[in-house]
Write a structure and sequence with these properties.
The chain is an all-alpha fold. The chain has helices spanning 4-19, 25-43, 47-64, 66-74, 76-109. Helix content is 87%, strand content 0%.
Length: 110
C-alpha cells in the first residue's frame, strides 16, 4: 500500500545519494506537491473498469481470434506488461482509498 511518508523518505534518500545533501524546504514542498498531484490524478482513474476490461479481453480473446490470442500468449513482453498493468491498477486502487481517507480527515478538520 502507498504510504506518503515512506515515499517522501525515499525521495529524500535519493536526493542525498545523488547530490550529497538533503532536500531543502523548497524541494521538499515541491515533492509533496508532486505526490499530491499524482494522488489527485489517481482518484480520477476508473481502476475497476480497467481491470474488468483486461479480464474481458483475456476471456474473449481465445474465442474471437484464437490465432492472435495464441500469439499474445507467446509474447512474454505483452504478458509481462499486462501483469504490470494489473499490479499498477491494484496499487492505484489502494492509493485512491488512502487519498479518500486523507481528504475525509482534511474535510473534518476544516
Amino acid at each position: 500500500m502507498f504510504d506518503l511518508h515512506d515515499r517522501l523518505r525515499e525521495i529524500r534518500e535519493e536526493r542525498v545519494e545523488s547530490r550529497g545533501k538533503p532536500m531543502d524546504k523548497f524541494e521538499y514542498d515541491a515533492a509533496v506537491s508532486r505526490i499530491g498531484l499524482l494522488a489527485r490524478m489517481a482518484l480520477e482513474l476508473d481502476i475497476d473498469r480497467l481491470l474488468l476490461m483486461i479480464d474481458r479481453a483475456e476471456t474473449l480473446g481465445p474465442i474471437l481470434d484464437p490465432t492472435l490470442y495464441r500469439d499474445f500468449l507467446n509474447n512474454r513482453k505483452a504478458q509481462a506488461d499486462i501483469e504490470a498493468l494489473k499490479g499498477m491498477a491494484k496499487h492505484v486502487a489502494g492509493l485512491q482509498r488512502e487519498v479518500e481517507k486523507l481528504l475525509d480527515a482534511w474535510t473534518r478538520l476544516l
